[in-house]
Amino acid sequence: MLTIGQLAAYAGVTVRTVRHYHQIGLLPEPERDASGYRRYGASAAVALIKIRTVADAGVPLSQIGLMLQADADALADAVEKIDNDLREEIERLELSRKRIAQLAAGDALVLPSEVICYLDRLRELGVSPRILEGERDGWILLAARWPEHMPAVIADKLAELEDPQLVRLYRVLSEVGDSSADDESRLAEIADLMAGLLDRAYAAGEPDLGTEWQDEMPFDLMNNLAAEADPRMPRIVELMRERGWDGWTRLKRVDQGAPGAATRPPGPRSAPAGHR
């Protein structure tokens, strides 16, 4: 007859494990002897070795009892189900590993690859980290809402970066964003550059994309990003309105008080995705 410690050591588990198996009903708990100790026989050792072997194979404790009592057909079915469950768990863990690995890549965790390329292009053009941060957050909002449109939208945005006026806009935004001064002339330059880009697009008859972009929430959130990040944003929006355009991320014509067609959100000649 074995003590609990001897039984645990023989089966290659801990005493705590044996007690846990008793608590969940997986291993019957023997009566205590006259001295008050539990004593285990050979059958207990065999049962514990079986439990340990099945548990080491990855079978959940809740299913081990049924497996050990099942006939051949039931055992085969149980093994198949457990195998399928384990396969699904492995796939989930592999996906988690990929996502964790992406953490080292920073923005790649929450943004599609085409947006990362666009941000890298802005970085090459000398756009400041603060403006890049705003761009990134704006694209996070848009990509979460319209992931299927990102490849086409980013293709347009990359093409726009061939326009020196847009590149100048990003550079002025960077200079202003890195300063806390209320330089009215620089704010006016931002408004002039944006209005010039928008006027050209409007004159070219750039189309409204229609109902697929009618959800206002992402654009409202992007506007909030800009307003929360820089107290000068209301003044820039006011200057834009004076030049015939209302808004920041989804601008509309306001000439003579009558809104015109919305510019492509956030496609050609629209504002940067975010501003910090």
What's this entry about, in short?
By secondary structure, the chain is mainly alpha-helical.
Shape: elongated
Please state how the strands of the largest beta sheet are arranged side by side.
1-2
What percent of the residues sit in helical stretches (DSSP H or I)? 55-70%
Quantity of strands, as a count: 2
Number of helices: 12
**What share of the residues does DSSP label as strand, in percent?**
under 5%
Low-confidence stretches are 256-270
SSE run: HHHHHHHHHHHHEE
Mean pLDDT across residues:
83
Characterize the biggest β-sheet: 2 strands, antiparallel
Structural class: mainly alpha
Radius of gyration: 33 Å
Distance between the termini: 75 Å
Structure commentary:
Strands 1-2 form a two-stranded antiparallel sheet. 62% of the residues lie in helices and 1% in strands. It is elongated. The chain has twelve helices and two strands; from the N terminus they run ααααααααααααββ. With 276 residues, the chain is mainly α. Helix 1 (4-11) packs across helix 3 (42-56) and helix 6 runs parallel beside helix 8 (150-160). The model is unreliable at 256-270 (pLDDT under 50).
Q: What does the secondary structure layout of this molecule look like, with pairings?
A:
Blueprint: H1 4-11, H2 15-23, H3 42-56, H4 61-69, H5 72-103, H6 113-124, H7 129-145, H8 150-160, H9 164-177, H10 184-203, H11 217-229, H12 233-242, E1 245-246, E2 252-253
Helix pairs in contact: 1-3, 3-4, 4-5, 6-7, 6-8, 7-11, 9-10, 10-12
